[in-house]
């Protein structure tokens, strides 16, 4: 009995010694990890996540107060919140506020595709406040960002689409004028990348038909609809002029796009002069 008690006590001592060693080494490892560069603790912000979800659900008016709360914190989500705020103000017809948010964003070191979104939205909202975007420096920056991107052209197209969500509200003519300028970026995609060309062409055609649809909306003043028709025809003419004179596979794709929109342009012209 005494022998058994001694053996039992020895086992207990060994077990406690082993547990102590495990705890010691685990504690050292934990302390070393906490002191390392990889110890960054990521705390998710439910307010930011809700605002982000609202922006992507096109419920921008609801997103704005939540985004303002995030911006007031000035934490790691600040740059992305600025982008979402710019998009939200763009969609709620507040171009001055959109410009302020986006101008603040481009001061930061952000990745090229975030910058592409921001600058395309900036150009669009400059058009809304009456600026001449034909000579605007944002056009050059957008071109450089798109041309210097080494990835798939689909990525460029999807990022440009952020600025291609149109409302056709009181800024309908300004939106068409923006389309006239930004469509050249889609033409570059069509001409340089056969894989992405069809999607880019369909995107552009969809936007033309979107605006044409509003020419029959009688709640819009006749003078406004006339301005829209003139702007659409000017945009189409700019697209025609963008075709390369030198035959190439890319030029053929652009020519097909222009040809596909010929009937639409004739319909608009007929509507304008009837």
Question: What can you see in these coordinates?
Answer:
This protein is mainly alpha-helical. The chain has a domain at 111-274. The protein has 13 helices and no strands. The chain has helices at 2-34, 46-56, 60-73, 78-91, 95-105, 112-128, 137-147, 153-160, 172-192, 194-213, 222-241, 249-260, 262-273. The longest helix has 33 residues, at 2-34. The model is unreliable at 15-42 (pLDDT under 50).
Write the layout of secondary structure elements.
Blueprint: H1 2-34, H2 46-56, H3 60-73, H4 78-91, H5 95-105, H6 112-128, H7 137-147, H8 153-160, H9 172-192, H10 194-213, H11 222-241, H12 249-260, H13 262-273
Number of helices: 13
SSE string, helix = H, strand = E? HHHHHHHHHHHHH
Strand content: under 5%
Terminal CA distance: 115 Å
Regions with little confidence, pLDDT below 50 for 5+ residues: 15-42
**Share of helical residues:** over 70%
How would you characterize the largest beta sheet? none
What general form does the structure show?
globular
Give me the secondary-structure category. Answer: mainly alpha
The overall pLDDT, averaged over residues, is 87
Compact overview of the structure:
The model is unreliable at about 15-40 (pLDDT under 50).
Quick tags:
0% strand; 274 residues; globular; single chain
């Amino acid at each position: 009995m005494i022998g058994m008690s001694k053996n039992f006590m020895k086992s207990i001592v060994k077990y406690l010694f082993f547990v102590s060693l495990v705890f010691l080494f685990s504690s050292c490892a934990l302390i070393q990890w906490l002191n390392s560069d990889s110890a960054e603790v990521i705390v998710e912000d439910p307010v930011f996540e809700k605002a982000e979800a609202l922006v992507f659900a096109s419920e921008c008016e609801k997103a704005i107060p939540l985004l303002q709360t995030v911006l007031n914190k000035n934490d790691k989500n600040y740059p992305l919140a600025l982008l979402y705020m710019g998009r939200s103000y763009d969609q709620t017809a507040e171009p001055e506020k959109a410009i302020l948010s986006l101008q603040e964003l481009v001061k930061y070191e952000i990745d090229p595709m975030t910058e592409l979104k921001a600058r395309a939205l900036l150009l669009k909202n400059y058009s809304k406040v009456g600026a001449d975007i034909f000579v605007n420096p944002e056009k050059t920056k957008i071109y450089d960002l798109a041309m210097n991107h080494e990835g798939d052209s689909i990525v460029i197209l999807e990022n440009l689409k952020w600025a291609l969500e149109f409302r056709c509200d009181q800024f309908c003519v300004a939106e068409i004028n923006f389309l006239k300028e930004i469509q050249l970026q889609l033409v570059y995609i069509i001409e340089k990348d056969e894989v992405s060309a069809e999607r880019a062409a369909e995107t552009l055609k969809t936007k033309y038909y979107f605006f044409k649809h509003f020419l029959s909306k009688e709640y819009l003043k006749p003078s406004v609809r006339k301005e829209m028709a003139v702007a659409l025809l000017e945009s189409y003419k700019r697209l025609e002029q963008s075709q390369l004179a030198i035959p190439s596979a890319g030029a053929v794709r652009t020519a097909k796009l222009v040809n596909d929109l010929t009937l639409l342009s004739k319909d608009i012209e007929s509507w304008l002069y009837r």
